[in-house]
Amino acid sequence: MLKDFIEKNKGKTVFLEHEVKGLLKEAGISVPKGLFVSKEMAEQLSTRVDLSYPLVAKVSSTKISSKSNVQGVRIGLKNACELKKAVTELLQIKDAEGVLLEEMAPQGLEVIVGGIEDELFGPVVMFGLGGIFVELFKDVAFALAPLTEEEALWLIKQVKGYQLLEGYRGRPSVDKETLLKIIVTISTFIATGLIKEIDLNPIALYPEGAMVLDAKMLVNAQIGNLRPNNGNTNSP
Amino acid sequence: MNPLESLFNPKSISLIGAAHTEAKFGGIILKNLLRFKGKVYPVNPNYTYLMGLKAYPSVEKLPESVDLSIIIRPAPQVPEILKAHKDKAKCVIIISSGFAEIGEKNRQDEILHIARELNIRILGPNCIGIYNPYQRLDTLFLSYERLKRPKKGNIAVVSQSGAILSCLFGAIRKTNIGLSRAIHYGNAVDIDESDIYEYLANNDETRVVISYIESVKEGRKFIDRARLLSEKKPLLILKSGKSSRGQVAAYSHTGRLAGRYEVFHSILRQFNIKEVEDFDELMDAAKAISYQKPSPGQRVLILTNGGGSGVLAADECMRQKLEVAPLPEKSLKILKPLFPSFCVLNNPLDLTAHARDEDYLTALHELKEDYDGFIVISLTGVTGITERFIDLLKDFKTNTPKPIVSHIAYDSISRKLTLLLEKIGIPVYPSPERAVRGLKALLNPSPC
Q: Cβ contacts (< 8 Å) between B264 and chain A: which residues?
């Protein structure tokens, strides 16, 4: 599936948020219901979109790595009027290629799941608690990809804030099974060697289910060039 | 046969760049090689004899093909010298520096290329080589006057730094444990830590491996071999260079968080490979596992005749994720009438300054089934502690296979007690905390 996706987009290394989310959705991972509005389409943006308010609008660009740094996110848009204003403003941001409109997701426990091609170990998957836990405490753990569900369970237990997933001080516990499935999927994605970096950040976890609120992906520039498993090389 | 056998257990050795005086490294190495049990062929065109051995003018003139050849000549000469080893050696140690470590990457690539062509394995370059007390084989350019060697034992030291290797020699001697092999692999152009792990996994004289690492070249191969080794015997890794810089020019948040060390640390945990924090913990842990066999569990009993020392040990247990579980009810009932009323029957179990040798044994016997490991603290300033303490502990140790370590404070008879305890296989530490860290290496601390 990842292979087909990259094949279809040959030559592209960076993808827009809705493209990455489309891929995730195909892989069985939930994302908010959304609509991508390109710069060209914006003019004809009808006042009636097939989404239920309130909405969130986010600037889309392969050149913008942090949307919040450029004030590129508007949340809690309640009606067509607010929506129109937001889209117009967002499109004025430098390098904007379009706007992604999404239904607001309910508040959940935020986590981050990512994968990178580590310079030493090759494909590695990461799990961490989102929000201030990742920013302030760097409460993350890594593992060699790919992972089984059992190994993914080990991984999430490595972070200091693991208890939050179990429900802490009256908060509900979250759907760990869905989280494990996401980690396993991302670990198999990164293990293909087709992508260099992938970020699902944040993912909102709920008592039942989970939703990826933002995602980015960088494809390996030499695609088609599957990296060898260097587990058993070198012995002359 | 493992290809590293000719490195660690050669029958014959040539030394290219042998010298007549200990003022030169080539002289120190030759002197150290005089202890070697096999044949030694010094090579130096200017001498017919060196330190009483017949010298040879060149590699080509060696009377036989050797298992191991040691090269200590200036780096620019090394490629030619190596070529001359065609059909003359199975393995070479290149002591010389002047390769990739100073930017001479091409020269390093060249020697690897030559060695592959000639089917010769290389240790180094830029290394001090190996020490195998079982063969009295010593390629270090450090004299015995300046650096004493540890005794024969069961610990193998694998070091990426020559300096750390020499420091470990001192620490191991002081710790009263012994070496099976020591190796410094330097630039690791060919033989690296993974190859060495593979050899040590099947080396019967080695029961414990400690490994100092600055960087590894091939992450997946390293993990693979380290995992296979740890499945057979304890492996302790000390990694230096723990700065948490992320991967350069990362696109994602993950990339910025993925510091080289964080990833390394996580992956060691993923495969259950033990990592120690620092040099001291390396020595404390190595000592414990050199004396005793690891055992499952995490419940610790602290037995002391000094309250404060017991509390310090308990604090360290908490930091190290070891469980200081309270005494079981049934044992309390049994122990209460046996000890004076002012004894604190708890964990730590404080026998107080009135403790006598046999009180330790009484408590240990009653509680041996309820705990996984034992810390025996004995402050010897009081008269109740005598040499009988040793016999009693020996009796306990022969009857229970569970880990037991000791802290004995510096005092009158402490030195003697320490020696005697270590003789019966109980490692002794100079502080309560270090005793705990030693015990931790023998148990399985809880994961979170």
A: 120-121
pLDDT in tens, A66-91: 888 889 999 999 998 899 999 999 99
A69 touches chain B (CB under 8 A): no
Residue A229: is its pLDDT beyond 60?
no
> Which ipTM was obtained for this model?
0.85
For B267, which of A114, A142, A198 is closest by C-beta distance?
A142
**How far A13 CA lies from chain B's nearest CA (Å)?**
11
State which residues form the domain around A163: 2-15+107-219
Distance in Å, alpha carbon of A25 to nearest chain B alpha carbon: 20
Give the total number of structural domains in chain A: 2
B-chain residues near A215 (CB < 8 A): none
DSSP B346-373: SSSEE--TT--HHHHHHHHHHHTTT-SE
Asked if B253's CB is within 8 angstroms of A199's CB, the reply is: yes
* Residue A107: strand pairing partners: none
Q: Is the four-CA dihedral B119, B121, B126, B132 of positive or negative sign?
A: negative
Residue A225, pLDDT above cutoff 60: no
Among B195, B253, B275, pick the best mutation site for testing chain A contact (most A Cβ within 10 A).
B253
Q: What is the CATH number of the domain that holds A58?
A: 3.30.1490.20
Closest CA to B310 of B375, B225, B231, B230: B375
CA A120 to CA A222: how far, in whole Å? 18
pLDDT on residue B444:
82
Closest CA to B363 of B440, B295, B375: B375
What is the CATH number that goes with domain B147-291?
3.40.50.261
Query: What CATH number has the domain bearing residue A181?
Result: 3.30.470.20
DSSP letter at B412 equals T
Residue B262 with chain A: CB contacts under 8 Å: 138, 140, 142
Q: Which of B194, B195, B255 sits opposite A197 (nearest CB)?
A: B255
From B221's Cα to the closest Cα of chain A, the distance in A is 5
Tell me the three-class secondary structure of A74-115, residue by residue. Answer: EEEECCHHHHHHHHHHHHCCCCCCEEEEEECCCCCEEEEEEE
**pTM, full prediction:** 0.89
Q: Indicate the residue type of B282.
A: L
Closest residue in A to B121 (Cα) is A236
b or e along B131-150 (b: 16 or more beta carbons within 10 Å of the residue's beta carbon)?
bbbebbbbbbbbeeeeeebb
pLDDT in tens, A186-224: 999 999 999 999 999 999 999 999 999 999 999 987 754
Indicate the fold that domain B1-144 takes in CATH.
Rossmann fold (3.40.50)
Give the model confidence (pLDDT) of A154-168 as tens digits.
999 999 999 999 988
| Tokens describing residue B176 | 């009263």
The per-residue pLDDT for A43 is 75
At B185, list the tokens: 């692999």
Q: What is the pLDDT of residue A134?
A: 81
Residues of chain B with pLDDT under 70: 244, 246-249, 411, 446-448
d(CA A49, CA A33): 12
Q: Which two tokens stand for residue B171?
A: 């620490």
Instruction: Determine the Cα–Cα distance for residues B101 and B187; give it in Å rounded to an integer.
Output: 7
